[in-house]
Specification:
Blueprint lengths: L7 E6 L3 H10 L5 E6 L5 H6 L1 E2 L10 H9 L2 E6 L2 H5 L2 H5 L5 E3 L3 H8 L1 H10 L7 E4 L2 H13 L3 H10 L5 H14 L1 H8 L7 E4 L8 E2 L4 H13 L10 E4 L5 E10 L3 E3 L4 E2 L2 E3 L3 E4 L4 E4 L10 H20 L5 E11 L2 E8 L6 H8 L4 H9 L14 E8 L16 H5 L4 E5 L2 E3 L5 E3 L3 E9 L2 H14 L17
Parallel strand pairs: 1-2, 1-4, 2-3, 4-5
Antiparallel strand pairs: 6-9, 7-8, 7-9, 10-11, 10-16, 12-15, 13-14, 15-18, 16-17, 18-22, 19-22, 20-21
Length: 481
């Protein structure tokens, strides 16, 4: 299917803030025929699309296949990572139908961090040094070894524990010794700024990355991920890698298998609290254009494309894998140059929300071009406005949180000039009220000629929205003005 022609019926898969933003932009396309959505419980999506009339099960895609045939779907847009990893793009591809999203083989870049690390290492992509573990005891020994030289008491304890073969017995022995010795307990509670990052290898909803500040936190992360399987099968394997220092940026590209188009740079704010404190989250806010690369100098962006993006796409092609969709690189700008943190294979959330507000091109045409290897012919235009997106989260996120909490002030917030509010974790209850249904609840996007103006609009609207436990950062984009 070419990027020219008549109306196109679209099936949008997914139900979060990213998908609401995609639907909002798709509805502005003059080429859109009918828009069908798989997740109408999201009030924002319910207002924009028609619900599919079949059960949705990504592991049994035949119903969606028949739905696409029956409703002459010309474009399938897959938003989240889970259906991509399960091969839904492969299952729904058909003559005359374009799927926007990579194949299951290509989605391994995100779904299997251990595999991705090996691929990019072979391609000489600059990234953090790392080790891959499938045995939690080996992972624990490796992390403990990072501080053994400076802690003689710990060194003796670890050496004594090596004779215990059963892992549960060893952990019990270690726990008893630490509890009985305040000096040892102090070692495990002592702050270390250079402890490695611990990552679940599989998909963990953006929460499977732990940046421990103490040895105790590091070992607890291994226990939660690998033994207690807090992220299910995603934690059977962990990647333990060196901690990089610098500014983190998000670089998203459209890739059609042959051509690469780098989208406007974004800067995500992953930590829960102001000043990048607290646990990692799926993202608490984003600015676009963002970070150092949002200051008008393309040299760094060109370096990232040449040293990270292009070698990765080429390496996949050598593996017989053609990547078509969104390739999202999380990059750390270190003193030694840009280094890859990890890849995602779909629009970031909330990066997508900011990008869709700034995009002036027809997103439907861009998606068709990506799926038909004609991205070099696409018309790419962006607003010169600045955008600030603030995430409103439930109290307790990213841990346990309440749902079903009524939300007020949405109408007032949506009337603030320059603001768009996207629904992420919301639904309507039996009384028709909009209530919380997830950890990240709403995305409030403000735009303006300057970042200061965009921030003012976003925070003005965010303050008009109220629900019990509302959590947000107050410093999104503060460093950018």
């Amino acid at each position: 299917m070419s990027s020219g022609g008549g109306p196109v019926n679209v099936l949008l898969i997914g139900g979060g803030g990213r998908e609401h933003a995609l639907a909002w932009r798709l509805k502005q396309s003059p080429r859109l025929g009918r828009l069908f959505v798989t997740d109408p419980q999201n009030p924002g999506l319910a207002e924009l699309g028609t619900p599919v009339d079949v059960p949705v099960d990504f592991r049994q895609p035949f119903r969606l296949q028949r739905f696409c045939d029956k409703n002459s779907i010309g474009l399938v847009v897959i938003g989240p990572e889970d259906p991509l990893a399960l091969g839904l793009a492969d299952a729904l591809a058909a003559p005359g139908r374009v799927v926007f999203g990579p194949s299951a083989a290509a989605a391994r870049l995100e779904a299997d961090k251990a595999w991705c690390k090996q691929l990019i290492r072979n391609a000489s992509v600059p990234t953090a040094e790392s080790r891959i573990f499938t045995d939690p005891e080996a992972a624990r020994f490796y992390v403990e070894s990072r501080v053994l030289a400076d802690e003689p008491a710990l060194s003796k304890l670890v050496e004594a524990s090596r004779t215990i073969r059963d892992s549960s017995d060893r952990r019990r022995f270690m726990s008893q010794q630490i509890a009985a010795d305040p000096a040892l307990a102090a070692v495990y509670a002592k702050r270390h700024d250079d402890l490695p990052v611990i990552k679940a290898s599989g998909l963990a909803k953006g929460k499977g990355v732990v940046l421990p500040s103490t040895l105790g936190e590091a070992l607890d992360a291994i226990e939660r991920i690998m033994v207690k399987l807090e992220f299910d099968e995603a934690g059977r394997t962990v990647v333990i890698e060196e901690r990089l220092e610098g500014s983190e940026v998000s670089v998203l590209c459209l890739v059609d298998g042959r051509n690469i188009y780098v989208l406007e740079p974004c800067q995500d704010h992953k930590r829960l609290g102001d000043g990048d404190t607290g646990p990692n989250t799926g993202g608490m806010g984003v600015i676009c254009p963002g970070g150092i690369m949002g200051q008008g100098d393309d040299s760094l962006l060109n370096q990232i494309q040449a040293e990270i993006i292009v070698p990765t796409v080429d390496a996949m092609r050598r593996e017989g894998i053609e990547f078509r969709g969104v390739l999202y690189a999380g990059v750390m700008l270190t003193p030694a140059g840009p280094k890859l943190l990890e890849f995602n294979v779909r629009f970031g959330d909330p990066e997508c929300q900011a990008l869709m507000v700034r995009l002036e091109s027809d997103i439907l045409d861009l998606m068709l071009a990506t799926g038909t290897r004609t991205l070099d012919e696409a018309d790419m235009r962006w607003s010169t406005d600045r955008v600030c997106c603030i995430v409103l989260a439930s109290g307790g996120y990213p841990g346990r949180y309440k749902t079903g909490v009524p939300i007020g002030g949405l109408d007032a917030a949506g009337k603030v000039p320059g603001v768009v509010v996207f629904h992420a974790g919301t639904k309507r209850d039996n009384e028709g009220r909009v209530v919380t249904s997830g950890g990240r609840v709403l995305n409030v996007v403000g735009r303006g000629v300057s970042m200061a103006e965009a921030r003012r609009a976003a925070y003005q609207a965010a303050d008009l929205i109220n629900f019990e436990g509302k959590t947000l950062r107050r410093d999104i984009g503060a460093a950018a003005g």
